[in-house]
Amino acid sequence: MSKGKDNIIQFPGTNKQNISKQQIDDLVEETNYHKEEVEMIEHTIDEVAIDVIRHLVDIGCDINKEHFYGDLALMTEILRGMIMRDFGKDHLAQALIDKIITVEHNANGEVQPVINYSKVLTDKDLPNYKLDFGADNETEIVFEPDFEFPEPEDDK
Fold first, then answer.
1. Same-domain check for residues 69 and 104
2. By residue range, what is the domain housing residue 42?
3. 82 and 39 in one domain?
4. pLDDT computed for residue 156 by the predictor
5. pLDDT at 123
6. Band (110; pLDDT cuts 50, 70, 90)
7. pLDDT at 59
8. Is residue 84 domain-shared with residue 116, that is, in the same domain?
9. Is the pLDDT of residue 45 over 50?
10. Does residue 25 lie within any of the structural domains?
11. Is residue 2 part of a domain?
């Protein structure tokens, strides 16, 4: 190797002299912002999971059963997908949510999620249990919460 040369091969079309210090600083700042945002989301999910576990223990749930960990993992992944969507970030759980849940409005104009498990489950998934989705063996379950959803703000 000749003197004064290094063994770094520059990618075609990139030239480190074309990147300003300001651009580098902006990228570092944006990266740090996204990192802090993800850390905050993960911290929030951890806190919610701990609160859920506490409440479940308080009502007598046995958190030492093996299936509990799977149930909790799904719940936290769904929560992660929900929060990530709100922050404009993609997450695999969003695809599952979007596949089985449609958000409709009832006769009063209120938001009403409709869950359709048949889009991901069949009778073979639970061989000892007949999937009963309600009256007339409908495949959708209308979610009727014991609380009111806040009205969504109109996007303007």
1. no
2. 18-90
3. yes
4. 47
5. 75
6. confident
7. 96
8. no
9. yes
10. yes
11. no
Q: Is the pLDDT of residue 136 over 60?
A: no
Is residue 50 scored above 60 in pLDDT?
Answer: yes
| pLDDT attached to residue 18 | 76
Number of domains forming the structure of the chain: 2
Asked if residue 137 has pLDDT above 70, the reply is no
Residue listed under structure tokens 């990147």: 19
Q: For residue 137, is it within any domain?
A: yes
Q: 134, 150 in Cβ contact below 8 A? A: no
Query: 3-state SS of the chain?
Result: CCCCCCCCCCCCCCCHHHCCHHHHHHHHHHHHHHHHHHHHHHHHHHHHHHHHHHHHHHCCCCCCCHHHHHHHHHHHHHHHHHHHHHCCCCCHHHHHHHHHEEEEECCCCCEEEEECHHHCCCHHHCCCCCCCCCHHHCCCEECCCCCCCCCCCCCC
Q: Are residues 117 and 78 in the same domain?
A: no
Q: Is 13 among the domain residues? A: no
